[in-house]
Every structure is written in structure tokens, then in C-alpha cells.
Amino acid sequence: MARAKLADVAKMAEVSTASVSRYLNGSLVLPKETSDRIDAAISELDYRPHPHARRLSRGRSDIIALVVPEIANPFFAQLASAAERAVGERGYRMMLFATDNRLGRELDYLVHLVGADVDGVLFVTNHTDAGGELAQAIAKNSRVVILDENIDGVDAPRVFVDNFSAGRLAAEKFLEFGHRDFAYIGGPDGLMSVNERGEGFRSQLAPLGERNTRLRILLGDYSPIHGAQAMNVLLDEGDPPTAILTGSDAITLGILEVCHERNIRIPDDISLITIDDVLPNRFMTPAISAIRQPIAQMGQVGVDSLLALIDGSPETVAPVTRLPVEFIARKSVAAPREGCLKASSSKETSYGN
């Protein structure tokens, strides 16, 4: 038996094909008697609208795009997984694009995706927008939501974690154990998350006074290479900190490699807290304490915000959403060894950008 067509439904219901089409895509309200005839014809003929044709008639693809710097990084992999689940629950599909954190590819996706292949874009970058090109491209699209990192000059909805609290919580835990000499090995200089975490960390040290604490800041890529380089710098100075906050699990991997090579024991020699908790930190030796980011919630909120824009309800979307972080206590923080408290100084080092 041949598949029923729209014209067959219209003929049986004694209406025009245009009326059936508009009724099915929700753009036409009919009298109950007429709509009942259409529904009965659809049931009797077992009519199933062609998905692609129906999407075209509604002016939508029912697809959203997630643009991330890379997919090898577990943080972005988990974000993609969470977003795809949220999208599927709402009857949409998702396309994933990786930019290699390159401006040219980001701009290309922003220009060509929205309105052509997808209904909207969830966008993540991992670098600053020094020239303002990203902000200009996003300003031309009304259906873009920014996740994780800020882009200056953008009015699009943004979903971030509470980075300030991430730094504050780490410093608070170190201070509880009696530490006074710290290092923050963070990501690229100028990124919102990097700056805010540093500010949060400093906020906990301020009441103690500059003479009673020391904080060294080393910034670079979110990578094991940067973590290893920064750790070697601290150890080569001959006066390493007693507690280190790292800006990502990737950075932490590099730090752990150097500690192993140079016989630095965690937490006996140096205490360590990582931000992210996307790697199996609980299975490491010792298990690494972490500031856990709510990645799944970020994906869910981002999808909800984007679909509200697509549905024409921008007034229901918060301009900026901040999601809470959580401290996960494990075995990598302990009291400093006796005699480790040092005089204060502050030093910031940035490389690898």
C-alpha cells in the first residue's frame, strides 16, 4: 500500500491541502468539526508527515549546534553529552563542532550555522576576544547562548559557573589546614574564569594581611604542558609553596608528572586542589581534592535558554546565569610541614600564551 500523502488527507477531510499543512504546523486554528475530520483522516490513512518537509514548513530545522574548542578535553566532552541529552528530551537534535580554539573557525561557524543549518548555537571559546570579532559576529545573531567563558561586549545570554567562589573555597580549605604560602597555576591570562578564580582566592587571604601570606600566580594554557612547566618553575626557585590551586584537571596532570619525577609527595610536601573534577581524581594516589564544576547543569541551562530564544521568548532568559561549585574533599590536602611558613611576597608569572 502506497504511503498516504497530504493531498489524500485533504481530500478525505474535504479541506484544502494548505489548510491541512497549516493545521499540522500549528499556524491555523480550525473549527472543532473541521479539525476532527482532519484528525480522523490522518488516523484512517495512517498519514505520517515527512519530518524534513514539516520542519521546512515551520521554518525550523529542529537542530541546534554546540561549538566547543575541542572534544578531546573531558570537560567539553561532558558538556556535549549533557547538552545532547537535554536537546533530545525537548525533541531536538544536536550537531557538534570543534574549532581547535581558532578564531577563524569560530567566526565561520557563527556566520554560516545560524539560520541556515541550525536553529541556534551554544557557543564556547577558550581565548580572549581582543579584536572584538566574536562579539561582532554574535551581535548579528539573536539565537546564540554563550557557555563557560565570557566574551566582552556580548549581550547574548551567558551561562557560567561561580568562578569567584571556586577560588575562595580553595583558599578557605588551605587556610583551615594552616597554609600561608600558595601558588595558583591557572589558564590563559585575561580569561574571565582565570581572573575571577584568582580574585576569589585573594579575597580569603586579604584579612590575614600581606605580611602573613604569599601567593604566586603562573598563567598559561589549560594543558598538562603548562602544569609541568609551572611546577618546575616553582621547584627550581628553591622555595616552593606549600599549597597549590590548579585551574583545570589538565594542568593538574602536568603537576603530578613533575611531582613524581622529582620525588615531591602530595600532600606531605605540597597540598593540591584542582578545579574541574572531570578526570577520575578519586582513583589517583592520593585522591585529589577538587572544586567540582556543574557541567551537566551548564548544558541543561544552556539548552533551556537557547530553546526559549528559538521559541521567541527572550524575556524569559536571564542575561547571566551563575551556577554553584562544590568542594570535594579527598586526600591531597594536609597541614604544611613544620617550618614551612614563610615571609610574604607576591609574584605573578605568565607564559605560554
From TrEMBL:
Transmembrane segments: none annotated. The keyword Lipoprotein does not apply. One of its GO terms (molecular function) is DNA-binding transcription factor activity. Residues 4-58 form the HTH lacI-type domain. It comes from the Bacteria. Keywords: DNA-binding, Repressor, Transcription, Transcription regulation. It holds the Pfam family Peripla_BP_3. PANTHER family: HTH-TYPE TRANSCRIPTIONAL REPRESSOR PURR-RELATED (PTHR30146:SF148), LACI-RELATED TRANSCRIPTIONAL REPRESSOR (PTHR30146). This is LacI family transcriptional regulator.
